[in-house]
Structure prediction request, 716 residues.
Amino acid sequence: MSSASADHPRDGLGPDLGKVFGPSHADGGPELVQLLTPEGELREHPDFSFDGSIEDVRGFYRDLVLTRRVDTEATALQRQGELGIWAQMLGQEAAQIGSGRALLPQDMAFPTYREHGVAWCRGVDPLNLLGLFRGVDQGAWDPRDNNFGLYTIVIGAQTLHATGYAMGMQRDGVVGTGDPERDAAVIAYFGDGATSQGDVNEAFIFASVFNSPTVFFCQNNQWAISEPIERQSRIPLYQRALGFGFPGIRGDGNDVLACHAVTKAALERAREGSGPTFVEAYTYRMGAHTTTDDPTRYRLSDDLEHWKLKDPIARVEAYLKRGGHADDAFFADVQVESEGVAERLREGCRSMPDPHILDIFEQVYAEQTPELALQKQEYAAYLDSFEGAAQS
Amino acid sequence: MTQITLSRAITAGLRKAMEDDPKVLIMGEDVGKLGGVFRVTDGLQKDFGEDRVIDTPLAESGIIGTAVGLAMRGYRPVCEIQFDGFVYPAYDQIVSQVAKLHFRSMGKLPMPMVIRIPFGGGIGAVEHHSESPEAQFAHTAGLKVVACSNPVDAYWMIQQSIKADDPIVFFEPKGRYWEKADLDESATPLPLFSSRVVAEGTDATLLAYGPKVKTCLEAAIAAADEGRSLEVIDLRTLSPLDLDPVYESVRKTGRAIVVHEAVVNLGMGSEIAARITEDCFHSLEAPVLRVGGFDTPYPASRVEEEYLPDLDRVLDAVDRSLAY
Ligand SMILES: Cc1ncc(C[n+]2csc(CCOP(=O)(O)OP(=O)(O)O)c2C)c(N)n1
Prediction:
């Protein structure tokens, strides 16, 4: 704390930066919204509370375990050569399940490439996520089927799409009507690194001046590949929101109840027409950036050990057990179910049909061009010439 | 003589440039501690410090825009764009600022900057990691564009690019990063903006750069088995083009085929074909043919082998040319 103040001496020209702690803090800092401690104990917060039932918490537990299983299975599939690459979600399950379960069916979500838990909450078949990583397609699901956008690899681009989509909702009269079945909002997912991109800052500005129903959900997992959060910011990310003209909140990203409560409040605010909110889910990327990355080159295993103690699943399990909210049979059932999910993913991945080169010519335009149709025809003839040669 | 991979050759070239000139800086995402996602800048931050090898915030427009300011201040920034498909957030800075400052200042403001872009496909990557955007930069007046195809050229060309006073977009064939060659650091390199005949032949001329040079050399070997003699030219520089050796070759062979991974439509091949036609019209036995990517976005990796021009497609074009 004191070293941070020394770094930012007050010079009378601006806010007292000595009051903040830099962008990261061992415990997330004093303004961290936490409702469930790493030990699994409930905690009161003056502004936020979890308003769900025990049944909901059990549901979260199931989501957390099953999506972690999807994630570890996909990682294993990459190791076996079935996927070209995989972006692990490990450690970020609570941020994704908590926020994903706060969405209503009419809300829209715009993901990065790591939102496997959110996809699950939206009802996207986990198998669909594998296509991109296996190299058979580039997403290929229809975002309208589950109100879940395509995975976006270009950092930050989707935050603008989310804002524009929310502006569309405003024009369609589905914001601030007071009808809970009708009012809708958009959530944009992005990482800490993404907050440096121009697109993301422009999204903040558009959302702010048009008061669009956009929730900016930043999973601060402390790393952008090899670069620590300090390379993107000198203040806690959630504090940036104020400068753009809307509120920012930092939630414990490993606490599914806090993530749910904070996101729910932000979504409600958006749906009622009060504009955007920035939610920073303070968490940690427990795995590598992707399966091609080697984090031992740039970070200390001490950090990892520290964050292991804050595991998003262990605390829910501890809470359910301690309060007698779930018995052994419940945990055993979830375990069995997770094995089933993994097996289905394995089989489904291995039997995914390869794409056909000639199909790519049909994907480019809504209205096919004569030039491209001709290219397809010529290439088909070229491929046929080999078949002929092989047969003769 | 040392055996060195293409990526390591660039590392060695960068290191040499940094030793020779304290104004040379390296900037980019993950270039410092990690040494870049392809390890091209491996070890440089450790040896030259964080002031000279800068891990930047995650913002390409920021990288190139601040490099403009650093260049104005007398530095020679070497910016890494992590993958071809991520250059576009910086496109405005490159095209509207970097490319035009010399012109706008009536020559008072040089922009010595190198923008390194690993490009091309064939590595089984997800979208935005396999593209070939070189023509978009070659089309922009004020930028110079080069592409290396082998470790030896990579070593020299990166140093020459850093020494140049104009902004240079430096394309690295990422699919060839691991290919090896003997490097003689005491040799005299070819001038930067020159093409080179890399295989001599008499029946047709293959023109390529970056990753496709090797494909063309392999095609020449395969064609030789069938009694056909192909000349191969490594273009090396895409803007300016160095076409005199090309014209000379085409006057000899009467046939030219341009090969690149980028889409054919308005790709480098279009300009080269037009110029060959203008200069060698009376020597041509066949129209200049182009072999390249189809006019679609780069596809999912499981079909990239069929998408990318390979040896068979080059030989097919040779057949078509010879059939005229
Ligand atoms: C415009 C752009 N530049 C660079 C990259 C390469 N890249 C992929 S992920 C990444 C780091 C992203 O960090 P962050 O936003 O914190 O998200 P995280 O991956 O940690 O979830 C980078 C630099 C990219 N995908 N897009």
